[in-house]
Design brief:
rod-shaped, 6 strands, Substrate Binding Domain Of Dnak, Chain:A, Domain 2, two-stranded antiparallel sheet, alpha+beta, 2 domains, PH-domain like, zinc
Length: about 350
């Protein structure tokens, strides 16, 4: 063995063995820390895998792949492809975690529990064999003259057996230490490089998947930008329409204020321009027996005949037959009254 140039039991040999045992103890501590880090890394991959699946499930529930109105409006059918991609990326993480466990975690556990702990077991057996060998040697050299031959033979045989057991334990320890020294040169490099290769394949799989989706992704982004511009344009048009409506309403209010006829009844207060009265009457006369048309509509304040009643805001519609409808806040008709005029 290259590690041990001389195998005779000597102080130099024992010093070399003790030095290698000390290095083995230090290596065991390093391996334990690496194994703990590997376990934490595996745990993070488990969490990442669960996170990918959870996000895919959330995206699915949000509307991906569904055909209800909300899902269609938010692009659910398009998102279904993205949901599938997230699930696929999650399986890549699970595969990486499995490879990490097989290529590094399990091998570290095997190296610690079998190889490194094996050195400790060999040392304990060697110590017991050395004590037994010292005792057998002491008994043999303590034999006095005149001791029966069969006793001497038995002690000599015990000494021989103790020495054989000691040498066997000594070489077992040597073999265990040499095995660790040999594995140092390839065991960790092989495991770590295999883990890096697993990462390479993991990112390659993700890159290939996303590369295939790249044209579709850019197509969706382009569509989203165009939809955004159209939505902004529609919002601008709506804002202009609202402004025009408010302007027309303010102009109408100004005109009405210049010529007002106010009438009060139990149904409420109506503020209508005199010119508006004439226009309404003319239209009612022209369509008395014809098609019903909406003459005027809007909000008014109404209260019951009881003077103490509260004023309530109601939406009203006056048609060409002189019928006045008014609605509550929930859009249901709450009253109808006839407003026919007589000549």
């Amino acid at each position: 063995m290259a590690t041990f140039t001389k195998l005779e039991d000597s102080p130099m040999f024992r010093k070399q063995v003790n030095s290698l045992e000390h290095l083995t103890d230090e290596l065991k501590e390093r391996c334990s820390n690496l194994h703990k880090g590997c376990k934490r890394f595996m745990g993070s991959l488990d969490e990442a895998y669960a996170g990918d699946l959870s996000f895919a499930d959330s995206l699915q529930a949000f509307g991906a792949g569904l055909d209800d109105p909300i899902s269609v409006a938010i692009g659910g059918p398009v998102m279904s492809k993205f949901t599938t991609a997230f699930r696929e990326l999650g399986t890549y993480k699970e595969l990486l975690r499995s490879q990490l466990e097989h290529m590094l975690s399990d091998r570290l556990s095997q190296f610690i529990n079998v190889d490194l702990n094996g050195v400790k077991d060999c040392r304990q057996r060697l110590d017991r064999a050395a004590v037994a060998y010292d005792q057998a040697r002491e008994k043999f050299v303590s034999v006095r003259k005149g001791t029966r031959a069969e006793v001497v033979t038995e002690l000599e045989e015990d000494l021989h057996n103790a020495k054989s057991a000691f040498e066997r334990c000594r070489f077992n320890l040597v073999h265990a230490l040499a095995n660790i020294e040999a594995k140092k040169k390839y065991e960790f490099l092989e495991s770590i490089s295999a883990v890096m290769d697993a990462h390479l394949r993991y990112f390659k799989q993700g890159y290939e998947l996303l590369s295939q989706m790249e044209p579709f992704i850019h197509q969706v982004l382009t569509y989203a930008q165009q939809s955004k511009q159209m939505a902004l344009s529609d919002q601008d048009k709506l804002a202009k329409r609202i402004q025009e409506f408010r302007t027309e309403e303010e102009i109408a209010n100004v005109r009405m204020a210049s010529n007002v006829d106010t009438s009060t009844s139990g149904d409420g207060i109506h503020v209508v321009g005199l010119q508006s009265y004439k226009t309404i009457e003319a239209l009612m006369q022209s369509t008395a027996n014809g098609e019903v048309q909406v003459i005027k509509q809007g909000y008014l304040f109404k209260r019951p005949q009881n003077i103490r009643g509260e004023w309530k805001r109601r939406f009203f519609v006056l048609d060409s037959h002189g019928t006045l409808y008014y609605y509550g806040n929930k859009g249901k008709s709450q009253g109808v009254s006839s407003q026919q005029t007589t000549e």
